[in-house]
Amino acid sequence: MYASSTCIITSNYTNVKTQLPQPFLNSFLKTPANFRFFKLHFQAKAVKNVESMEEIEAKEEEKSKSKWVRIGPDISEAQKQDIANLPPKMSNRCKALMKQIICFDYEESDLSGLLKEWVKSTIPRRADWLIVLKELCAMNHPLYLQVAELALLEESFETNIRDYTKIIHAYAKQNQVQEAENTVLAMKRRGFISDQVTLTALIHMYSKSGNLKMAEESFEEMKLLGVPLDRRSFGSIIMAYVRAGMFDKGEDLLREMDEQQNYAGKEVYKALLRAYSMIGDCAGAQRIFDATQLAGITPDVKLCALLINAYVVAGQSREACIAFDNMRKAGLRPNDKCVALILTAYQKENKLNKALEFLIDLEKSGILLEKEASTILAGWFRSVGVVEEVELLLRDYESCEAKYSFSLDSTIGSDFLAEHCKGHTTRMTMYIEAFLRL
């Protein structure tokens, strides 16, 4: 009876851990074939995946290594010279990258991979990046901007907005508008907002490329920043208006600056003065010339020449001469351009006698004719057909045998030359002889 009781208990036994009847578990454990198959299949697949990953990593490692080449003696002489010219105090870390860039093979190498290998191998700091970029810029290396753009993506470079501005300015300087705009978009995607310096560079770029609409939009965006506009910001948009032929708008902005006592640079005044000068707008040229002095800029000979040219183009020789005399009274020595302009003014009005008086007065002051003025005077003499006669006359004066007489035109004759060329014949003869050799 005890045995029978024991048998009943055994048949109804339930596994405590699984909560399943023991007979069921025994039946399951007797057929483990499928389980082992899946286990082995899984292990094989895992091994295959591991091998695949190792192959990929090996290939990547090999690919990475291939970017960093050993610099041997077979490089070109130009490359050897560039390497030899690297600053002696440059760190080995920076020299290593510079050598790779100098010997870079455009067809077989990848610049991005090269830089990543350098970062991985040397762990550079921002200072190292800046040293490399400065040297590439000084060398005017063709990879400078590419390296600079790739550096922006590296954590060790510690990129800031001014780094983007430098690249934008560099592209603008080369008139690569699309590349500059791409850099601006990349900057904004990184969370940087265009500031006054960046927008000024863009205005300057659009101004040079003749895109006034984008220059104006950039200027308006700059004003929305709410910061006081400096002379460079104003100057850039004024230059845009000058290049677009809208001189009045440029002058309005210049006047606005003057009211704020925020004076533009000399180059802006000069650009606007030149613009008025070339079209013969002597009133506009005089306004800008006066505004230049009010801005505390002392006019030089080149600015005076632009004012004189405005009067010459307008056919006002008297005012041109007054501007010339005022320049001399201010202590400025006229250059060849200024002398040539006055001769041109007299030639337009056929005042040869005035021109000769003018030249003799210059000679008394020790101011001699140079190439441009000499060319104008020679052409003038040829046009009236008196080159040979003038040369003979002046030589007669020089030898005190002034017996030759002739008439240049209805306004001047030998009496005039005898009166005004006496004592100056040597220099004037040199002029005529120079003309004959032209």
Automatic annotation (TrEMBL):
- Which spans of this chain does UniProt mark as PPR repeats? 160-194, 195-229, 230-260, 300-334
Fetch the Pfam families from UniProt. Answer: PPR_3 (PF13812), PPR_long (PF17177)
* Keyword entries, A-Z: Repeat
Report the superkingdom from the record: Eukaryota
| Positions of the PROP1-like PPR domain | 173-281
Keyword Repeat among record annotations? yes
The answer to whether UniProt assigns keyword DNA-binding to this entry is: no
Q: What InterPro entries does the database record attribute to this sequence?
A: PPR_rpt (IPR002885), PROP1-like_PPR_dom (IPR033443), TPR-like_helical_dom_sf (IPR011990)
| Designated name of the protein | Pentatricopeptide repeat-containing protein
